[in-house]
Amino acid sequence: MPLPTPLRTRAKDALFYCPIILALLMIGFAFVVDSPVNIFAGFITILTSPAGLITDSIVVGGMGAAFFNAGCVLLYSTFLLKLVKVPFSGITLACLFLMAGFAMFGKDLWNIQPFILGGWLYSVYKREPFSRYIYTTMFGTSLCPIASEIGNLVDGPAKILVMLVVGVLIGFLLVPVAAFSVRAHQGYNLYNVGFAAGLLGMLFASLCKSFGYEFETQQKWSSGNNVMLGCWLALVFGLLIVAGILIEPNRKKYPHIMRHSGRLIADFVLLDGVGFSFINMGIVGFIGLAFLLIVGGEINGPTIGGIFTMCGFAAFGKHPKNVLPIMLGVLLSSFIMVHDISNPSVILAALFGTALAPIAGQFGWHWGILAGIIHASVVLNVGILHGWMNLYNNGFSAGLICIVLVPLIESIRTNATEERRF
Q1: C-alpha dist (Å) from residue 21 to 185, 236, 317
Q2: How far apart are CA 290 and CA 156, in angstroms?
Q3: Per-residue pLDDT reduced to its tens digit, 372-421
C-alpha cells in the first residue's frame, strides 16, 4: 500500500536532510572535541598532506580537523548532487556516506576537485548532462592520492598545475572505464568504481615507476578513542533507525529487504522505501561497529570510513544476511592464514570486503564465507599494483575475485543441477 502524500513528501525530504544532518553532527562534534584554532590548523595540514593508504586524518590533523573535513566534504557533495538535480535514492546515500567516510582517511575538499572537474569535462565532451556521470565522478575521487603523488615529481608552482592536470585527466578517463568494468564482474562487486580506479591507478603507477618514481606506503593509524567515537557512531546509527521507524511504522516488514541478493543494481530506496532503507542502514552500521569492537579493533578515521561505507551501501545492496558471511570469512582467514585480525589492513578488509555481499546473497552464505577468506588474502597483495594510491583498494580486490570466483561458482552449480536431473 503506497504511503499517503504527506508521508511520501516527508520520506523524499529525508533523503536530502539525512546527509545534511550527518554533516552537521560531524562538524558539531569537531568543535566539541577541539578548539577552532586547532581545527583550522589541522584542516590546513590535512589539505596539504599525502593521502595514500593508510592515512588516518585523525593522526594527520587531529580529531576535530578530521571530523570538520569530513563534514565539509559531505556538505559539498550533497549540495553538488542537489545542484545537478539528480533524484535522491539509495545510490545517493551510498555515495554520500562513502564520501564522508573516506574524508576521514584520504579525501579532502581540495584533492577531490580536479576529479570532479574531469568528470564534468567528460559530460561536456559527450554533450550530455553532468547528472548522468556525477555518481561515477564522485566515486572516482578514490584516486585523489595519485594526483598529489605525481605532482610531487616537480617543484614550485608547477606542482599544483601537474596535480590539477593529472586529476582532471583521471577524472575524465575513469567514467568510460567504470562503465565497462561492471561487465567484468557482472554486478557482484558493489564497489565497481573501485575496481575501475584500481585498473586506471595501476596504469598510472606503472608509468611513474618506469620513470624511477617509487610510491611510499603510509601507516598512520590512531588508537585509544573507542569509547568516545563508539558512542558517537551509536548515536548516528540509532538516529537512522528511529527516523526509519517514524517514516515506516510497519517495521515488522523490514526482513523483506533481505530477499534481495544485493547484486547491482539493488536500490533499496526504490525497491522497499526510505524507511526500511534507513532501518537497514542503522542495523548494518551497528553490525560493522560491533564487529570492530568484538575483534579488538580501533575506531579511527579508516575504520569509520569502512563502517560508514557499509552503512551507506545498506541503501544500495547490503543487508545483514549478505554482509555477515563475508565478514565471517575474513575473520576465519585470520585463524588459518599468516595474517592476523589485529592487522589494520585485515580489519579494513572485513569492513570494506562486504563489497562482495552479492555473492553471499546470490549463491548462499557458504560461498560468501569463501569469498571473504579469499578477499582477505588478495586485498593485502594487490595494493602494490597501484602504489597504494587507490583508496578503494578493497573494491579493486573484490572486482578481481568476482572475475575468477563467480564463473567457477556458476559452473559448479550448473554441474550439480545437471547431476540431480539424472
Answers
A1: 35, 10, 23
A2: 47
A3: 999 999 999 998 888 888 899 999 999 999 999 999 999 987 765 545 55
Alpha carbon distance 186, 196 (integer Å): 13
d(CA 270, CA 272): 6
Domain range enclosing 84: 5-210
Same domain for 351 and 244? yes
Q: Which residue has the cell 565532451?
A: 125
If you average pLDDT over each of 38-47, 251-260, 387-396, which comes out highest? Answer: 38-47
Backbone phi, psi, residue 273, to 5°: 105, 165
Whether residues 305 and 375 share a domain: the answer is yes
Angstrom distance (rounded) from CA 291 to CA 5: 39
Q: What are phi and psi of 55, to 5 degrees?
A: -120, 105
Q: What is the pLDDT of residues 175-216, one digit of tens each?
A: 999 988 888 999 999 999 999 999 999 988 888 888 777 777
- Give the number of other Cβ atoms within 10 Å of residue 413's Cβ: 13
